[in-house]
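Quick one from the shared queue. A colleague (R.T.) flagged Endonuclease/exonuclease/phosphatase domain-containing protein as missing a structural entry in our internal table.

Convert sequence to structure tokens.
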Amino acid sequence: MSRHRPGPFAWVVAGVLGLALGWLALGLTPGLYGVAQLVALRGVLACGAVALAVAVGLGALLVAPEHRPGAALVASVAMLGALAQIGVLTVRSVPGDRAPAAGEAAAGDELVVLAFNTLDTVEPATLASLVIAQQADVVVLPETSALTAARTAELLADEGHPMQVLTHDAAPASVAGTALLVSLDVGTYDQVDPLPTALGSFVAAPRTGSPSAPTLVAAHPRAPITASSMPGWRTDGTVVADACRTTPGVVLAGDLNATLDHPQLRELGPCLDVARAVGAGARGTWPASAPSLLAAPIDHVLVDGRVWQPVSFSVLPATGGSDHRPVVARLVRRSA
């Protein structure tokens, strides 16, 4: 009795599929159009590969017996590709440089950072409630108008939570700029120092009377939406990452339109991605309509790891109609 083996076509399909899934799992050429978008959605890739493996496996039951080994080969490659994506997400769910040792941080040293791209759709009352609920000290709001930021600060002041407001406009008038709210307990900040990006990124340095206050960066580089937007996306992302790498004691937050797979965030020098440090690097933030494990983790808090110790990072539920989920990072200053 002859023994059936996978045919040439099955080997070709399995080879192409394995190459594609392996390429994405390894994150090769992540700055190229197409690859950049796919590696940002590893959860979706894993689910898609599992669905393909199941579909091919079930389809094998309907074909002639001589075709079943080829179907099994393709299904096996798809399942291995899914496992590779799951492996990357699992690694990013393992804490690295995390919580401070007992007694390392004194009471009151915690800094709470909230970042939320509001799509300029979230009402000031909703934002104020969110800030108070999280007891946030630093609030970075990409795509938020200056009017919304000012009204939010007024509501916070009424609740005994006064915050300074700094804003910077985006270059296209169709997109709201970036706002930064800072608790007066953190320090007093000078007017913004814009970064050369399109969507309103800026640096806020503390005044000389606030020696312990960190330099803050409110960030929103361009998104990789089309092939023509890729050079600007790479440039903007590099500018933001360089601000983190080269600014001692910095706390940077915002919608970075990039994941840890992308070139901008692969080499951060002394900076830490707080989500990755505490084992939350697989939790996605966009789109807010998708489950967090299937969404792209593009909203970040980055800090100078020589100065700040990550304690926790949370991805909050969808809020106020924005297509992003808010994120909250808790930090403590390292002992000298």
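The two ends are 76 Å apart (CA to CA).
Residues 68-91 form the longest helix (24 residues).
Added to the table.
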